[in-house]
Specification:
The chain has helices at about 1-25, 30-45, 50-60, 70-85, 90-110. It starts with a helix and ends with a helix. The chain has a single domain (about 30-110), classed as Four Helix Bundle (Hemerythrin (Met), subunit A) (Up-down Bundle). The chain has 5 helices and no strands. By secondary structure, it is mainly alpha-helical. About 30% of the residues are buried.
């Protein structure tokens, strides 16, 4: 009987963690969509469209606890400038910096 009770507690903990993680993803769809667009921009021959979509998603996002969203938008603006200058390496550096800011913003929103 004790084994069954322990197993039930573990299952409840796993379920709570899973639901909490799913809830966070559902709460911040714009931030997740922005990351998806940034990842696509890194690999696309024409990245500006993806960068602009990522920026739009961030502008629509609700959370901005410590300014990470604004910092990410600034990095995306720099990435767009570099993409227009065909400076791919610098563009990718700004994309990576934007992704870091978005992820920090997501963790602050918890």
């Amino acid at each position: 009987m004790k084994h069954l009770a322990s197993l039930s507690l573990v299952a409840a903990g796993v379920l709570t963690f899973t639901l909490g993680t799913s809830r966070l993803l559902a709460i911040q769809p714009e931030m997740n969509d922005a990351i998806d667009q940034l990842e696509k921009a890194k690999h696309d021959e024409h990245p500006i469209e993806h960068l602009e979509k990522a920026k739009h998603h961030l502008e629509e996002a609700e959370h901005n606890k410590h300014g990470e969203r604004v910092k990410a938008i600034a990095q995306i603006d720099l990435a767009i400038e570099d993409a227009r200058k065909v400076e791919r390496h610098r563009m990718e550096e700004h994309i990576e910096a934007a992704i870091v800011e978005i992820r920090e913003g997501k963790s602050d929103a918890r």
